[in-house]
Amino acid sequence: MTRSRRTALSTGAAALTLALGVSLAEPAYAGEQPSNTQGSNTEQSGDSDDTGIYATARITYSGSVAKNGSTGNVTSSDIKWTPPPCWYAPYLGAEDFKKKMSKDIDSQMNAPGMGGHAGAALSELQRHYEDEYGWTDTPGYKDYNVDRDGEGMFWAAVENPNEPDLLKRSSCTDLPFWVDNGEAPPPQYEEAITPEILAALAYQHMQLPETEVSLAPEETTKVNLPTWAWLDKAVFDEVRATAAINVPGFAIQATTTAKPVSLKLEPGTEDAETYPASGECTINTDGSIGEPYAKGKADRTPPCGITYLRSSGDGTYDLQATITWEIAWTGTGGAGGDLPDGTFGNDQAVTVQEIQSINR
Predict the structure, then answer these.
(1) What ranges in 84-194 are assigned the alpha helix state H?
(2) Is 17 helix (H, G, I), strand (E, B) or coil?
(3) Which residues touch 227 (CB under 8 Å, ≥6 apart)?
(4) What is the pLDDT of residues 152-180, one digit of tens each?
């Protein structure tokens, strides 16, 4: 069977989607854990039948992640990098898949006015799962593989609910396919879930701490007076988020780690000088950034800080302190690598006053 025949089968799936309002890639079936909780483990397994075969597979998140399945606050330093908009993951066991798919196909085939190209495509879709109707790199199935129930699962597309682009989110259009327990999905399914995809999703959900930079003078400073800035190691440490998927015959996970490496200061006005001149304060050997102010340092230039050259008048300047985080991941089977650096910043209001002089 040629590739064009595969397109015909996809048309049948599309016909089911339009008529029934059900998508084979619907996240409710093979989607993400819907109730993430920051700082704690969250688990949800799928429903099971009498044989213990799970009907769904969900991604669970733990560690420092955003609540309620929303995206975290980390921003990738690479504007071209994004998590996957969709992927393929374990969906249903053979018996459960037959119940759902055959019911949907029969309902659509018997719908009034069904015929022509859509009707033919549905017939081919039915033959694909019932009568071993396949093509070059994708074999068909005999009676939905029910004689192998418990030996594997059908995998299906999953939309990333946090992907704003509908076309990208629905771009995983292959029909559900069978994967034996303990085996990797066929190589043509490049978007099949992997530890690296889980690492990217953990990155997407990661919640970095809203660390406020220590300043001296604090909140109110003077024109031409150096303001020292620093972050103690005690409030500035690594952050981890883990994403995992676990069903009978298939279990993988990945942990994404964010390590703080630098602090960038933006004074909120052009009438200021930063230390160093780039405004980029690097991390010290002890894990801190900058140096706390102490008595006796008034005549010194801070290693990390700002000098404002003009008063803020009746208002304030918005000092933006942005931390750069180095992102890496490790996963099942010794997999691992680097992801683009992440950034997260806070604004702090700074009042700058003129130095008052007294004439005698």
Answers:
(1) 94-109, 116-130, 166-169
(2) helix
(3) 215, 216, 217, 221, 302, 305, 306, 307, 308, 350
(4) 999 999 999 999 999 999 999 999 999 99
Decide: residue 111, CB within 10 A, 0-12 exposed, 13-18 middle, 19+ buried. middle
Task: Determine phi and psi for 169, rounding to 5 degrees.
Answer: -60, -30
d(CA 96, CA 94): 6
The structure's pTM equals: 0.82
**Is the torsion defined by CA of 47, 52, 58, 60 positive or negative?**
positive
What is the signed CA dihedral for 66, 69, 72, 77, rounded to 10 degrees? 150
Identity (one letter) of the amino acid at 200? Answer: A
Contact present, 81 and 141 (Cβ < 8 Å) = no
Instruction: Show the tokens assigned to 171.
Output: 């771009």
The rounded distance, in Å, linking the Cα atoms of 158 and 94 is: 18
Which H or E element spans position 282? Answer: strand 280-282
Write out pLDDT tens, residues 280-332.
998 888 888 999 999 888 889 999 999 999 999 999 999 999 999 999 999 99
CA distances from 318 to 191, 192, 264, 277, 351 (A): 43, 45, 14, 18, 9
Q: What angle do CA 355, 358, 360 make, to 5 degrees?
A: 160
Using alpha carbons, list the distances in angstroms from residue 144 to 6, 121, 152, 154, 278.
Answer: 18, 18, 12, 9, 63
